[in-house]
Hints:
This protein is α/β, with parallel strands linked by helices. Helix content is about 45%, strand content about 15%.
Amino acid sequence: xxxxxxxxxxxxxxxxxxxxxxxxxxxxxxxxxxxxxxxxxxxxxxxxxxxxxxxxxxxxxxxxxxxxxxxxxxxxxxxxxxxxxxxxxxxxxxxxxxxxxxxxxxxxxxxxxxxxxxxxxxxxxxxxxxxxxxxxxxxxxxxxxxxxxxxxxxxxxxxxxxxxxxxxxxxxxxxxxxxxxxxxxxxxxxxxxxxxxxxxxxxxxxxxxxxxx
Length: 213
Ligand code: AP5
Ligand code: MG
């Protein structure tokens, strides 16, 4: 890939944004930025922001726009973002998207990974995440090469917001507040739709094809 990529990955919780962001990040040599991962790290470290964010995350609601916009402003100012980046989970509301525009960030591509709600519930039940390096697996669809431990050797855990009732509420939040962003970016002519596939490598192939088209 020779052109600069400033990519937003849209998609419901569990659509596979994080999984694809990790792969594309390695293949294209650009950082993947997950606001969810940054917030979870703050929760783990017990920072003021983390403590305030925890109740939103655990109920499946969105953290206030002002907080996540601040996080993204700081992160995009880091030198590794100069040559491009992947945003996984930001923006999630129209005001967040407007804030990116106001910052002068010129997004080149927006890819929405589409997966039906019923399949999402099935995927979330089997997700396992490494506490140390953040790698994501699925007990059936994407098992760790290291059994019940991460490839890096650390324990795998279940995310606190992966309980079925919280996943349902996250899906409602997505449909109400984030899905309208598809119209926002379609109007700018940079939205592409990728149908999430059974096999994650098939979704990767479609995502790369969308970027290279
Ligand atoms: P965040 O961490 O971003 O969560 P999310 O958007 O709900 O999405 P997930 O991380 O759950 O799913 P994913 O799409 O990354 O899927 P994954 O690749 O893991 O946000 C968490 C919370 O933080 C939010 O609820 C909110 O409170 C807060 N927050 C974050 N950003 C915010 C913002 N901008 N504004 C306000 N609040 C914000 O895949 C899921 C599972 O499926 C895995 O087990 C994976 O192995 C498996 N899988 C992936 N692809 C496939 C496939 N093709 N086939 C089968 N299985 C697959
Ligand atoms: Mg994720």
